[in-house]
Design goal:
- The chain is mainly alpha-helical and about 70 residues long.
- The chain has three helices and no strands.
- The radius of gyration is 13 Å and the shape is globular.
């Protein structure tokens, strides 16, 4: 999810599936009082399985070609 959020911050196009996966993952984390950066959830739990399902969608989004990102090359 962090990668998708960074892509969006860099100017990548919004994608309905990715936006939905981000919203779902954020809701799952918030409803379970979890922090994205410091909390751990085992994939074998029901919550973990729900988060992994969102990751699959976001992985596809993160691996697209973002020709519209405004990245600085140096």
């Amino acid at each position: 999810m962090v990668g998708a959020l960074l892509n969006l911050a860099a100017g990548a196009k919004h994608d309905p599936a990715a936006d939905g996966a981000i919203a779902t993952a954020e809701a799952l984390l918030a409803s379970n009082s979890l922090n994205l950066l410091t909390s751990k959830v085992h994939a074998s739990t029901s919550l973990g399985a729900e988060l992994v399902a969102q990751e699959v969608s976001l992985d596809g989004y993160n691996n697209q070609d973002f020709n519209n990102c405004s990245e600085v090359q140096g």
